[in-house]
From TrEMBL:
EC number in record: 1.1.1.29
InterPro entries xrefs: D-isomer_2-hydroxyacid_DH, D-isomer_DH_NAD-bd, NAD(P)-bd_dom_sf
Lineage of the species this protein comes from: Bacteria, Bacillati, Bacillota, Bacilli, Bacillales
SUPFAM superfamilies: Formate/glycerate dehydrogenase catalytic domain-like (SSF52283), NAD(P)-binding Rossmann-fold domains (SSF51735)
Domain of life: Bacteria
Name of the protein described by the UniProt record: Glycerate dehydrogenase
Keywords noted in UniProt: NAD, Oxidoreductase
Domain D-isomer specific 2-hydroxyacid dehydrogenase NAD-binding, residue spans: 121-290
GO molecular function: hydroxypyruvate reductase (NADH) activity
Pfam family, one: 2-Hacid_dh_C
């Protein structure tokens, strides 16, 4: 029976693996769980994984460094029960045949769920109304919208973008998608209409949600021109990376009172205490809450390991040629 080593501390194990997922993994392999509630050092990880075929790590656990890989020649799969694995792809990994898999698709589910809630709250103007109700009796809610009457814009047909499309579709809004890497036909299959330019999306949408990775081509792709093109009272949501937008340009429009923003990320992160996104009444700034630990991640990790042990591929195997398109 194949051996699987789970590097994450006990408290993280409990947050990521449901009892059912844990039992399912133990039925498929001989599992070694980190018995402590502290992170292993690289040396401790190398000793722990020495006879394992599969390593399951997560946030802040050791990465597949050259010393670990040399000490653990039986390792064939490194399952990252978290999101980005870009940091794994260093010279330490060159020449190794170990498979690297990410649970980013599972994280996409929780991010999309939060974005849907924020979009509904933003379009209904629930927060401005609640603020007005602190000083007025039955304050009116001007320009409120509901999803079916709205035009929704999605920037990036990423894992999260696609999950969000699935969630928003039953509400019936018009959905526009900006992504240079997708065809009109593929966008239509996802339930969206592809637009050719970001400006076109900004000008037409009542709410825009950003789901792009942080790359050279996406850095500050939403700038002053794009934010100024957005409709008055439009909702902007960013749960991808803070560096994908020109934060100062967004702040300038927020200070005019024109837009409402939900920002789960900033640049830098966390935002300085003096940053206006913390205090502007038309901006909700949260602490990277959209993703994070969830049972979705543990379940994907189990399914990925089972697939690998049965000769199939995990859901999201990451290779060197994919790095310029990933977060």
């Amino acid at each position: 029976m194949a051996k699987v080593g789970v590097l994450m501390p006990v408290s993280m194990q409990k947050a990521i693996f449901s009892e059912a997922s844990r039992n399912e993994l133990e039925a498929a392999a001989q599992v070694k769980w980190n018995p402590t509630d502290v992170q292993f050092s690289d040396e401790e990880a190398a000793a722990f994984l020495q006879d394992c075929e599969v390593s399951i790590g997560s946030w802040r656990t050791p990465k597949p460094t050259k010393p670990i890989l040399e000490a653990c020649p039986s390792l064939k799969l490194w399952e990252h029960a978290a999101g980005s694995v870009k940091g794994f792809f260093t010279d330490d990994l060159r020449g190794s045949d170990i498979m690297i898999a990410s649970c980013a698709p599972a994280i996409g589910k929780t991010v999309a769920e939060m974005v849907l809630g924020e979009m509904i709250i933003g379009l209904r103007r629930i927060i401005p109304n609640a603020q007005s109700n602190q000083t007025e009796f039955r304050a009116p809610v001007p320009n409120k919208l509901y999803l079916a009457a709205s035009t929704v814009g999605i920037i990036g047909a990423s894992q999260v973008g696609r999950y969000f499309l699935q969630l928003v579709r039953p509400f019936g809004p018009k959905v526009l998608l900006y992504d240079p890497y997708i065809t009109q036909e593929a966008a239509a299959e996802l339930g969206a209409t592809k637009v050719d330019t970001l400006m076109e999306l900004c000008e037409q949408c009542d709410a825009i949600t950003m789901h792009t990775p942080m790359t050279d081509s996406t850095r500050r792709m939403m700038g002053a021109e794009q934010f100024q093109a957005m409709k008055d009272d439009a909702v902007f949501i960013n749960s991808s990376r803070g560096g994908c937008i020109d934060e100062q340009a967004l702040i300038a429009e927020l200070e005019k009172g024109r837009l409402f923003a939900f920002l789960d990320v900033s640049d830098p992160e966390p935002a300085e205490m003096s940053n206006p996104i913390r205090t502007l009444p038309n901006c909700i700034y949260t602490s990277h809450l959209a993703g994070g630990q969830s049972y979705h991640i543990g379940q994907q990790a189990v399914e990925d390991v089972k697939a690998f042990l049965n000769g199939a591929k995990p859901k999201m195997v990451v290779t060197w040629d994919m790095l310029d398109r990933l977060a």
